[in-house]
Specification:
31% helix; 22% strand
Length: 147
């Protein structure tokens, strides 16, 4: 797994709205990159809804939120539309980004892990082993203390 203080691996993925997202395009900004196992499952739905609920707070801080799972672009689109997601959900259907970050589980889905990436492109914080609905608030608390 990518550790705190290490360079965040760059990637290029399609978002739920068809846009190509490259992590390196966000240099100069804080980024919350959260991996979730599968769209429409109860934990991932609660987690994504909570990120959506707190999105305005992330926006006020100038933080970009990106969610990643191995789901297809079309599944991410349906998930985003159903729950009114205000940020980009990215499709890692090839599982390359999940592997690069060390979060791909033997089941073939990503582990629930959040990486907070600083403006220089380094991982400032790794959040894991928390309840899905607690991830967003923990990320926000860390950012408020670090910025």
């Amino acid at each position: 797994m990518v550790n705190e203080g290490e360079e965040a691996p760059d990637f290029e993925l399609q978002s739920h709205d068809g846009e190509t997202i490259r992590l390196s395009n966000y240099r100069g900004r804080w980024v919350v990159l959260y991996f979730f196992p599968k769209a429409f499952t109860s934990g991932c739905t609660r987690e994504t809804q909570e990120f959506t609920r707190l999105w305005d707070e992330f926006e006020k801080l100038g933080v970009t939120v990106l969610g990643i799972s191995i789901d297809s672009v079309s599944t991410q689109r349906r998930f985003a539309e159903k729950y009114g997601v205000k940020f980009k959900l990215l499709s890692d259907s090839q599982k390359r980004v999940s592997q690069a970050y060390g979060v791909l589980r033997p089941t073939g889905t990503a582990e629930r892990v959040t990486f907070i990436i600083n403006p220089e492109g380094k991982v400032a914080k790794v959040i894991r082993r928390v309840k899905p609905e607690e991830h967003p608030a923990k990320a926000l608390d860390f950012l408020r203390q670090s910025m």
